[in-house]
């Protein structure tokens, strides 16, 4: 009986007509990609009157996939029938009875919400809702309650069709991936950077994941994390890029000889951003994303983040900067990366016991010149 999915969007509807059509087109393509990538057959996907409709016999599977497509605010599994009163009556009652059985209710409270998206149907929305409500009351043991209801019978009418549904499931909202360009994400095996990637995806960015190699165990974790993040990355085409740093040993050895091991983390992050800058420019990305949360660890103080940011002229985006650990963990658990990020990976040998908390740019500059024989780049300078 269920043969369609109603897809609703939010922010897209506030755009100018030309921009809205483009956003709808991108979202429609991302929906098709999500369905195809998971082997879900569909008959048609099209935008119409502020909705996107998916016609498919695999409604349940489609809903599970589309809940992860950014730009979607809510979804409903629906029965599409011709907009004829008798068909609407019978289909509404069948779906209502099915919902009662699923919920195990004896005398449910319900309400009917009807909306004529196009106006060719002869009854008003309120008249149709009243008639459907009367029909259900006449054929099933139940009560009407407009506020404290167990079941909401939804009906949307457009272009000669009625779409009848019993649920409105939430999506993540946001903007369709591909509408806001590309960014490079420095992806580690920790909890934070996958959440940062997820939040940038949610705002419509295609992310290019870059991992700076520190060992096989960590790399295996990061591969698993990226495979999980790809379930939200419909519209993005990027594969994981793994970089084996060539200068890390030189940096660590020189800093140790100078008894400045406490600057190791700042140097390593600076070099990571420098490499990310090269990759971003190669792929036409518009910025670099990091999982920093202000004050959470020693390398994430304002002073240290300032020094690390000098490695690129591109914007450095830190979507977690104002979040605390509990907020970040909650998102990680929701998107399925928390368990992967907490897998053991072994000790990373080059992290100092006492890293510098509030480093000095002048000190960093002097150390950099000793190691590399030249001044470090600074934002705005080549």
Describe the protein in words.
The protein has 382 residues and is α/β, with parallel strands linked by helices. The protein has helices at residues 17-37, 59-66, 85-103, 125-139, 192-202, 216-229, 248-257, 264-283, 302-309, 325-335, 338-341, 361-372; strands at 4-9, 44-48, 51-55, 72-82, 109-116, 143-144, 151-158, 161-165, 169-170, 182-186, 206-212, 241-243, 288-289, 316-317. The strands form 2 sheets. Strands 1, 2, 3, 4, 5, 6, 7, 8 and 9 form a 9-stranded mixed sheet that branches. Helix 6 links the parallel strand 11 (206-212) and strand 12. The radius of gyration is 27 Å and the shape is elongated. The termini are far apart. The model has no long low-confidence stretch (mean pLDDT 94).
Quickly give the structural class: alpha/beta
Tell me, briefly, the overall form.
Answer: elongated
* Overall domain count: 2
Radius of gyration: 27 Å
Spans of at least 5 consecutive residues whose pLDDT stays below 50 are: none
CATH topology of the largest domain: Rossmann fold
**Can you name the CATH architecture of the largest domain?**
3-Layer(aba) Sandwich
Major sheet details: 9 strands, mixed
In whole angstroms, how far apart are the ends?
A: 64 Å
What is the average of the pLDDT values?
94
> How much of the sequence is in beta strands?
15-25%
Question: What would CATH call the class of the largest domain?
Answer: Alpha Beta
What do we call the CATH homologous superfamily of the largest domain?
A: HUPs
Number of strands: 14
- The number of helical runs is 12
């Amino acid at each position: 009986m269920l043969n369609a999915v109603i897809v609703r969007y939010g922010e897209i509807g506030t755009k100018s007509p030309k921009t809205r059509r483009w956003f709808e087109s991108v979202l429609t393509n991302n929906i098709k990609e999500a369905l195809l990538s998971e082997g879900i057959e569909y008959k048609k996907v099209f935008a119409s009157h502020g909705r996107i409709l998916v016609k498919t016999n695999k409604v349940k599977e489609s809903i599970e996939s589309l809940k992860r497509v950014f730009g979607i605010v809510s979804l409903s599994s629906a029965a599409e029938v011709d907009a004829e009163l008798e068909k609407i009556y019978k289909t509404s009652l069948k779906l209502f009875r099915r919902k009662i059985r699923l919920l195990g209710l004896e005398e449910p409270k319900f309400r009917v919400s009807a909306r004529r998206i196009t106006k060719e149907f002869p009854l008003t929305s309120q008249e149709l809702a009243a008639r459907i409500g009367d029909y259900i009351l006449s054929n099933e043991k139940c009560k009407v309650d407009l506020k404290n209801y167990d079941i909401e019978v939804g009906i949307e009418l457009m272009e000669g069709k009625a779409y009848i549904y019993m649920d409105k499931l939430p999506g993540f909202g946001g903007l369709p991936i591909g509408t806001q360009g590309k960014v490079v994400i420095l992806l580690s095996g920790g909890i934070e950077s996958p959440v940062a990637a997820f939040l940038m995806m949610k705002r419509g960015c295609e992310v290019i994941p870059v991992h700076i190699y520190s060992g096989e165990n960590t790399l295996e974790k990061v591969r698993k994390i990226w495979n999980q993040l790809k379930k939200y990355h419909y519209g993005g085409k990027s594969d994981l890029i793994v970089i084996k740093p060539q200068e890390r040993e030189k940096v660590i050895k020189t800093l140790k000889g100078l008894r400045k091991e406490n600057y190791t983390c700042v140097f390593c992050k600076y070099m990571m951003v420098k490499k990310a800058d090269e990759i971003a420019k190669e792929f036409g990305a518009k910025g670099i994303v990091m999982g920093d949360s202000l004050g959470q660890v020693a390398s994430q103080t304002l002073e240290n983040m300032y020094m690390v940011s000098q490695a690129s002229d591109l914007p450095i985006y830190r979507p977690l900067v104002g979040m605390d650990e509990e907020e970040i963990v909650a998102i990680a658990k929701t998107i399925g990366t928390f368990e992967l990020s907490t897998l053991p990976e072994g000790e990373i040998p080059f992290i100092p016991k006492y890293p510098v908390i509030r480093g000095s740019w002048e000190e960093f500059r002097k150390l950099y010149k000793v190691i590399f024989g030249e001044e470090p780049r600074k934002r705005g300078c080549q």
